[in-house]
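Q&A log
Question type: sequence-to-structure
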Amino acid sequence: MSVEKTSEKIEKEKNLLIIVLDVNPLQRIVKEETKILTQCLDSTIVFANAHLMQASNNQLAVMACHGHGATFLYPSDKNNDIRQIDGQYEKFTELERTVRQQIQLFVNQIPLDSSLNGESLISGALSMALCYISRISQDKDGDEKFSSRILVITASNDSTMQYMNYMNIFFTAQKMGVILDVCSLDQELTLLQQGCDITGGNYLKVPQLNGLLQYLLWVFLPDSSVRSKLVLPPPVEVDYRAACFCHQELVDIGYVCSVCLSIFCKFSPICTTCHTVYKMPGPIPMKMKKKKKNLDITH
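Response status: OK
Response body:
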């Protein structure tokens, strides 16, 4: 293929990356060391600039979420007075200044008079990201190739309270062809591992926060067409157990309502979700399985 045809092909490709950064102050590693959040933000900005630098048609959006909401940091509708730094690409300056200003405003909006929520609203941020992708995809030209992916960077715990929201998001993303990547900074996230497996994305628990930027550039910067040619960490088992609706705990064997598909850890003659009264034999017992997939940097 000639250089001109290759250049023309690249110009017709549009790659959208949406980064969701969890800035919840109740994350364990953030409570122990407040500088961790600044370090993560610095690495995220460099990673975002690297994505924009790969191709002129690459698009980017940055979001933030905590226990009280989620919002877009970049691009921003607000007109900020941003002066370009000599020797720095104008778009990089705009991205860095806008993200830092908006994230400070977003964190300051956390209400101090109410109880802090330890569970970050990652599912809400993912829903907003999918809506944004749907809108952008409708604006593309007819012969233009469009691909999109979402990267979640978080140190929060797994939230079984958001189980149904997660499942709806995962299968919607799969239908839209959106890849979900997850970078965990603290512990294993079972539900988000399932989302990565369903959508064909990468999951990585970072073993050393000091090397966060290197892990982001190595595992998450390449798009899906390039990842198959890279030597990535070996796959690990994905826990496909579901969370019961009664106690919000992962179960090995659960009872599934045949009407609303709610999952319970114990048999009940009445579904507490849709209030259906079962005739014998009642809810259908199902065994949850595990599947090998995704990344473990420690192996």
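Response note: The mean pLDDT is 83.
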